[in-house]
TrEMBL record:
One of its GO terms (cellular component) is PAM complex, Tim23 associated import motor. The keyword Cell division does not apply. This is Mitochondria-associated granulocyte macrophage CSF-signaling molecule. It is a peripheral membrane protein. The keyword Protein transport applies. Keywords: Membrane, Mitochondrion, Mitochondrion inner membrane, Protein transport, Translocation, Transport. Its main location: mitochondrion. GO terms for biological process: protein import into mitochondrial matrix. It is found in: Mitochondrion inner membrane. The lineage of its organism: Eukaryota, Metazoa, Chordata, Craniata, Vertebrata.
Amino acid sequence: MAKYLAQIIVMGVQVVGRAFARALRQEFAASRAAADARGRAGHRSAAASNLSGLSLQEAQQILNVSKLSPEEIQKNYEHLFKVNDKSVGGSFYLQSKVVRAKERLEEELKIQAQEDREKEQVPRT
């Protein structure tokens, strides 16, 4: 009886181990695919997302901008900042999200400008 119980336990551990390994491989593949999809600006953009706590897409959604235009970002920022001012009944939380979104988009603009300068400086052969 103990022999059968031991076999059942070993078999159960093997099944759980295989399922865990398969789930881990799927998670790595999904993570890699997400990194590839997000990899437009590479490591700098990912680092900026980690520092600000917002992804580029989130920041664009918060400020309602589709392309990175400094004028459009500033216009939407000023409007949303005023609307969410606590003195007019707005939300400090939403106002801080607007500020963080603007900071994230400005950081992305800096990254793009730096990449453009680096491309111009590359000697052509």
